Amino acid sequence: MKSSFILASAVCAAIPWLTHALTRGPEFVRINKTDAVVIVADLQVGLYHVARDYNPTEFRNNIIAHAAISKLFDLPIVLTTSAEQGPNGPLPKEILQLAPHAAYIQRHGEVDAWDNAEFREAVRATGKSQIILAGITTDVCTLYLALSLRAEGYTVFANTEASGTFSKELAADANRRMENSGVILMGLFSVVMDLMRDWRNTPGSATVLPFIDTYLPAYGYIARAHEGAVKNGKLQPGEDGL
Does the pLDDT at position 59 exceed 80? Predict the structure, then answer.
């Protein structure tokens, strides 16, 4: 009798867990490669020098990689510069070579690229609703444009690794303001993985790994190490079975 009472109590205690519906969390917003456009906002050779929140060599790689995402996944890309005839300078030649036929809007006064009618037209002409954005500086060129795009209803993914500014503190302030406005903050690897989704897709392992090896050697060298182990590897005493 006592055991039956204990069993019944246990079943009753379990019922709320069995019947309780899961509470949904925030939506996981994914990058859709059929609905995305890459924007290069003022990643200029002069402005590059004010980006003090990243190692200069790493940051150079990051801004070129940002533009290269468009070629890897066959995404439209829009380039824009601010007063490039002055100290801000032109875009790096590597970016121009990656996207020779891209819409290229040279602004001569507007700080926020969205204030330029030609730029707005170029973005709207892509027909895409998702924006993958990077700019220098993070707290001006990326932030202002990201907030303007959000106000227009676009989904914005800010590539924080390819956006730079005078200090890490300023970058943190700008990223917080963007995130509070619904901008999704991501890095290069995260952007590429979300666009690819599955290593078996196209583009997939065959093209994405060489891209990563070029622009993200920390991961690329994992693949190189695996290649070396498969082609030349020999277990050392004590390794077998680890």
Answer: yes
**CB-CB neighbours of 185 under 10 Å:** 17
Distance CA 79, CA 99 (A): 9
**Closest among 57, 52, 106 to 78, alpha carbons compared:** 106
Backbone angles phi, psi at 157, to 5 degrees: -110, 110
DSSP 30-42: ---TTSEEEEEES
Please compute the mean of the pLDDT values over residues 7-26 and round it to a whole number: 63
Task: Report the predicted TM-score, pTM, of the whole model to 2 decimal places.
Answer: 0.89
C-beta of residue 146 within 8 angstroms of C-beta of residue 114: no
Distance between CA atoms of 138 and 53, rounded to whole angstroms? Answer: 10
Residue 99 CB contacts under 8 Å (≥ 6 apart), including other chains: 40, 67, 70, 71, 77, 79
Q: Which residues form the catalytic set?
A: 141
